[in-house]
């Protein structure tokens, strides 16, 4: 029952998110708006109710399984890559390598206490 | 025999059962292979699902329609990500400055690098538009796509490859630079590798998971606001 009550809370916040998105015509998804609203609610009331905690603990491990059907689609659209195969692959692989490098470097650079590292010794460009 | 087949294909239960079986099989194989970071359980599961669809003769659009009964849960699961964020609030507040400094730059560059590389290699605007939301979580990326154009399937393919690559590169570069802080690794996974990176981060622990959810949601919201605006400015 605790689980069910928590699930109802999550659905409630998703519906609130939907209302907020429609009302303010925000460019974010209903669920993302629901996430933000629930976070604000938790931060304001400073109390995590047992049901919501139980439901999130049960649901978050399912995330991987729930994104899988979307991934399956990739095998059925591979033809669309055909014309620009090299450009697309290089952009994705090289682009991601560069962006991961940048994120790690930036985070380390701004981390308090400056987690001692080799690359923070360089002057900032 | 043919009637049974048709009746089975007509019910969404088959698609859902196939998805659960493929996912569990994917996780089992992933464990058996020694949890390789270059091939997440999701990818193995997706391959198994595609094979299952082919064997059953179930067309992908039909599968997509049937499995929507299951993927509807993606909504409440996304909302549930607020809980680890709340539970890790002290860690997050302690780092609000680096997070706020890095995020806009990191999220913008994640899109920019890919678009510029593809543009230099002569990809046309629709392909560029499909690549721009590559680090954004799928439901938000679909929203961005509606605003800037491009091909939805190419975009979802790009999302998958980006997620796998980000998981791989974060693991690899963290080892190379001797970074072991779960907050930093989690954040990098979420910003660059959206839901696939976040799944990986939760495998590493709750702190990495919370920072990945944070990175993923911030990147998603920032890109949803920023990409359509930039696209309009440059008049693609």
UniProtKB/TrEMBL annotation, chain A:
What main location does UniProt list? membrane
Specify the protein's topology with respect to the membrane.
Multi-pass membrane protein
**Cellular localisation:** Cell membrane
Recite the UniProt keywords alphabetically. Cell membrane, Membrane, Transmembrane, Transmembrane helix
**Where do transmembrane segments lie in this chain?**
27-46, 58-78, 84-107
Pfam hit, one: LrgA
Q: Which domain of life is it from?
A: Bacteria
Q: Which PANTHER family match?
A: HOLIN-LIKE PROTEIN CIDA, HOLIN-LIKE PROTEIN CIDA-RELATED
The protein's name: CidA/LrgA family protein
Q: To which species is this protein native?
A: Halomonas salifodinae
Automatic annotation (TrEMBL), chain B:
Primary location group: membrane
| InterPro entries listed in its UniProt record | CidB/LrgB
- Any keyword Translocase? no
Instruction: Tell me the compartments it is located in.
Output: Membrane
- Coiled-coil regions, chain positions: none
Residue ranges spanning the membrane: these are: 12-30, 42-61, 67-86, 98-121, 154-177, 184-202, 208-231
Pfam families assigned to the protein according to its UniProt record, in alphabetical order: LrgB (PF04172)
Note the superkingdom of the native organism.
Bacteria
What membrane topology does the UniProt entry give? Multi-pass membrane protein
The protein's UniProt keywords, in alphabetical order, are: Membrane, Transmembrane, Transmembrane helix
What PANTHER family does the entry give?
Answer: PLASTIDAL GLYCOLATE_GLYCERATE TRANSLOCATOR 1, CHLOROPLASTIC (PTHR30249:SF0), PUTATIVE SEROTONIN TRANSPORTER (PTHR30249)
Protein name listed in UniProt:
LrgB family protein
From what organism does this protein derive? Halomonas salifodinae
